[in-house]
Structures are given as structure tokens and as C-alpha cells.
Design brief:
heterodimer, A: 184 residues, two-stranded antiparallel sheet, 7 helices, B: 341 residues, alpha+beta, Creatine Kinase, Chain A, domain 2, Four Helix Bundle (Hemerythrin (Met), subunit A), 2 domains, two-stranded antiparallel ribbon
């Protein structure tokens, strides 16, 4: 579908609003959508932080899809023209497949296409780093890493203070901790 | 007892509080790329995590008749998307109806907990305990940097959507919904109305939820949503007070007319029910009608949705038949008579 303004580019942004029962919809390319937003034709907040005027209520996850679709559509594809197409080792998807679907193909896709995903993720969330909860195995791992970090610092200062007895103790502790974390 | 049958905290404004956690299993493609055999495998794996726990019940969701599936969505036990899908999917329900685990919704697993009134923290605790149960038995897709790996990147991080359903007739009457939506979108929250009109036709019900899931902790999200909805509730009460002071006589008349219609009408369609619900619920909250609780009105609303009526009736009905059955249902529930089931 072509952009209804310039009639040149593919429409990637679909805007629909309902004001007092009056429906208005626009199908625009990224450039024309940006112009329309600057002129104030689109509801404040649209595209900036993804609040879609219409589409209400039933599922809080629902309009996230649309948001992702349009954000994805606007994005130019890194490596799209290279001949060798990267594929996810688990599900076989290419990044173009994911772009068309608007979603990842499997958990592995996020590792395979980490670089390609980064700008989209950052645009959606304003960051690319998780700070919340984790499955118990990862939590234990995280705590262990932190503990190793602390012990290493202690070991350094013990050596500096020539407290060799303490240093030996710390070294043993670290060895057993590292053994455990490697086994994981 | 389902959430709508129980009176919750601050039920004058807070109808329900809900948490949804999106989780996926490592080593499987996401939902749209699964063949039937893998779908069955995932269902069995998740099911086995609950084995031997008498508190949970397994439901082969895709084997249910359509009316029953849609009715579960009308009760807000599962999402409408989950209810509409026809490929193999299943649900696990807690015996008190507060927790439902959707297997093969958009993500392999969506843990939902819903409680009446203002109870986000409690709802989160319920969902988190089920999450812990799953992660001790299953290999959950997680990345140190991106958090829980989800089908759609919009849910990465905590994979958590917290939402509060609020009853806002005062804010609607004051014309404040659009402003509210704009303000909320600036702080990473969204508001949705039942039908999108944001009017009495929606029962003045609005769902407020978080938009961002990455770079924030679960606790931060919940505390922000609790603070903001608390402020919305204060404002709503102020609007109601103003409404009652300004034109109490007319307000009282409107409430009583709606109450009369609910009690004596012989045909009520869904749209009218929403509007009557809003007026009568407001009347109950302002003390204009005594002897009924908000939970009774919430029950009337949910149990009179189209698929709920057809499920209880035991088969499909024409819209006119439903309008009849709805009016009858409302009368029966209002008069306090218990249902045969």
C-alpha cells in the first residue's frame, strides 16, 4: 500500500482516531507521518511514545503489536542488501521475516539478531537493559558473580596488606565458587 | 468466588487489579511458528509443573465449545485473543479463580492473576508465586541483558503488564478522559475504555496499564501504577462530589430511572446495560441506592455478557433472545435470588 500523501513510498504508519464518534484514518510513509505529526495532525504522543488514540481496552498487549509493526516498518534494515542472509539457528527466520511478522521467531532470535534488534528495542523502551526479576537459576548465577567480585576485591587488599593467611583463605573460597559457576 | 463477586478495597473507583506475566520456554520457536506436536509438548511440560498440586485445575481450552471460551474472556479470566484462537491451547486455573495460566497465547505462557478492587501488590504476589513454580521446573527463556525473552519485543524485560480497571463516571461527566489519556501516555501508562468511546456506553470503565517493561523493575512498575491510580481515584471522587453538589436532583433522577429500568425492563441490550450499570453503580457509590454492593453490579454486568448468557443457557441464542435473557438475568440477580447452578 502506497502512502496516501506522497504516493511514492510504501505506507508504514497507520493512524486511526475516533473523536466524538467521527472516524479518521491515515496511511502514511515514515516521512509524511513525521511531517503530519509536526503539523499536529496526529494525536499528541502518537509515534513519540506509542499511545494509539483508538484501539481500547481488551488486551494491554494488543496495541503493542501495532506499535512494534510501525516502528519496525520505519526502520531501515541493516544488511538487507548483502547476499548472504543471516538465519536464526533455532527457528530459521531471517531478520526480514521477523520484520514482516513484527515479532521475534524464537528466544534465540534475540541473540542472533541482537544488533538488528537493538535500535527497535531502545525506541520502544527507551533502554536496552533489563533491571527486573530473573528465573531462580539466573538469580543464583547473578548473586554468585557478585560474590566473586567482592571476594576478588578482598583478596587484592589482603595481598596488599600482606595478610597471607587471609589471602589463602579467600583464594580457596574463590576457587570453589568459580568451580561452581563454571559447572553451571 | 470470582473477582467480580467479591467486594474489593476502594471498590467505589477500583473495580479490579490484574497482573500478566509473559514467559516462554527455551528451545522452542514462539507461538506462530509451532507445529501441533510442539504445541502439545509445551502444553504437557507446563501442565507437569502443576502436577500433584490440588489447588490448580487443567483445562483443555481448545476443546471447549466457543461460547465457553468467549465467556472466559468476558469474565476476564483469559484474553480475547486466547479465547478466539482455535489451535491447540490450554489453561490452568486456581481453585479460587484468581489465577489463570494461558498456555500458548501470544507467548508460550501468560500467567494472569486478577483480584477485586485495589490490590495490585497482592495480584503480583499471586502471579509471582506461580512464576516461581514454573521456573523451578521449566527452562524459561531469559537473557541477562534483555530480561525475559518474549514473542513481541514490546514485552521484553519483566514481561509484565500490570493493569487496574477503574470506574470513572465523574471524570467522564467532567470531560476529563482525553486529558487523562494524554497525561498518562507521557509517563509510560496507557488507558483503554471498554469500547473505545470513553463514554457512559462503556460503563465508564477504563483500564490503566504500564507500557514499558524494560529498564524498570516489577516493584517500580507496580508502585508507579498504584500511585497514579490513587491520584486518579482522588480526582474522580472530587468530580463526583461536584456533580452531586451542582445538580443533585437531576443526578438522583438519572440514577433512579436507570435503577427502575434494570429492575423492570424485559429486554436490555449490552450497550444499554453498560450505561444503566454506570448510572446505578454511581448511585450506589454515592449512597443514593442502599442495599446493593458494587460487587453485585459488577456480577450483573459480567454475567450478562453475550457468551456468558449463551453458556448458561446451554446453546446459541439470537440477539433478541439474549436481550430477553439478559433482562431476566439482571432482575434475578438484583432481587438477590440465587441461581440454580
Amino acid at each position: 500500500m502506497l502512502c496516501e500523501r506522497c504516493k511514492k513510498n510504501e505506507a508504514t504508519v497507520f493512524y486511526r482516531e475516533s473523536v466524538n464518534g467521527k472516524e479518521r484514518s491515515l496511511s502514511l510513509c515514515a516521512d509524511c507521518a513525521e511531517k503530519a505529526r509536526k503539523k499536529g495532525e496526529l494525536e499528541d504522543g502518537f509515534m513519540k511514545n506509542g499511545f494509539f488514540g483508538g484501539g481500547f481496552f481488551d488486551d494491554p498487549f494488543a496495541d503493542a503489536d501495532k506499535l512494534f509493526g510501525s516502528l519496525f516498518g520505519v526502520k531501515s534494515l541493516p544488511g538487507a542488501k548483502t547476499e548472504k542472509v543471516k538465519k536464526c539457528s533455532l527457528c530459521g527466520a531471517t531478520f526480514r521475516d521477523l520484520m514482516n511478522e513484527g515479532k521475534a521467531g524464537c528466544p534465540e532470535c534475540y541473540r542472533t539478531f541482537a544488533e538488528e534488534f537493538a535500535p527497535t528495542i531502545s525506541r520502544i523502551h527507551g533502554t536496552t537493559s533489563h533491571v527486573g526479576g530473573a528465573p531462580s537459576a539466573f538469580r543464583r548465577n547473578r548473586e554468585q558473580k557478585e560474590k566473586i567480585h567482592t571476594l576478588e576485591a578482598e583478596l587484592k587488599s589482603a595481598v596488599k596488606e600482606e595478610n597471607y593467611e587471609r589471602a589463602a583463605q579467600l583464594r580457596d573460597e574463590l576457587r570453589s565458587l568459580r568451580g561452581e559457576s563454571e559447572a553451571r | 468466588m470470582t473477582w467480580y463477586e467479591t467486594k474489593g478495597r476502594d471498590s467505589d473507583v477500583f473495580v479490579s487489579s490484574r497482573i500478566r506475566l509473559a514467559r516462554n520456554l527455551n528451545d522452542y520457536p514462539f507461538e506462530g511458528r509451532l507445529d501441533d506436536a510442539s504445541r502439545r509438548e509445551i502444553i504437557n511440560k507446563v501442565r507437569s509443573a502443576f502436577e500433584g498440586d490440588g489447588e490448580y485445575r487443567f483445562v483443555d481450552f481448545s476443546a471447549l465449545p466457543e461460547n465457553e471460551r468467549i465467556a472466559a474472556a468476558e469474565e476476564h479470566k483469559v484474553s480475547p485473543e486466547f479465547a478466539r484462537g482455535t489451535a491447540a491451547r490450554a489453561a490452568i486455573e486456581s481453585s479460587d479463580g484468581a489465577v489463570s495460566v494461558m498456555i500458548l497465547e501470544e507467548d508460550h505462557v501468560r500467567i494472569q492473576s486478577i483480584l477485586p478492587g485495589k490490590s495490585l501488590k497482592e495480584a503480583y504476589d499471586r502471579a509471582a508465586s506461580v512464576d516461581g513454580k514454573l521456573d523451578s521446573k521449566l527452562n524459561i527463556a531469559y537473557d541477562d541483558k534483555l530480561g525475559y525473552l518474549t514473542h513481541c519485543p514490546t514485552n521484553l524485560g519483566t514481561g509484565m503488564r500490570a493493569s487496574v480497571m477503574m470506574f470513572l463516571p465523574g471524570t467522564v461527566a467532567a470531560g476529563g478522559i482525553r486529558t487523562l489519556a494524554n497525561q498518562l501516555s507521557k509517563i509510560g501508562l496507557t488507558v483503554r475504555g471498554m469500547s473505545g468511546e470513553g463514554s457512559a456506553a462503556d460503563g465508564c470503565l477504563f483500564q490503566i496499564s504500564n507500557q514499558v517493561t524494560l529498564g524498570v523493575t516489577e516493584e517500580e512498575t507496580i508502585s508507579k501504577l498504584s500511585d497514579v491510580t490513587g491520584k486518579i481515584a482522588e480526582q474522580e471522587r472530587a468530580f463526583r462530589k461536584k456533580l452531586a453538589e451542582k445538580d443533585g436532583e437531576r443526578l438522583n433522577d438519572r440514577v433512579m430511572r436507570a435503577y427502575g429500568t434494570l429492575m423492570y425492563a424485559t429486554m436490555i441490550d449490552t450497550k444499554e446495560l453498560f450505561s444503566l450499570y454506570a448510572d446505578v453503580r454511581l448511585g450506589v457509590c454515592l449512597g443514593l441506592i442502599e442495599g446493593i454492593g458494587t460487587e453485585k453490579l459488577d456480577t450483573i454486568l459480567i454475567r450478562s455478557m453475550p457468551a456468558m448468557l449463551m453458556r448458561d443457557h446451554g446453546g446459541n441464542m439470537t440477539p433478541a433472545e439474549r436481550d430477553h435473557a439478559r433482562a431476566e438475568n439482571v432482575r434475578r440477580l438484583l432481587s438477590g435470588a440465587s441461581r440454580e447452578d
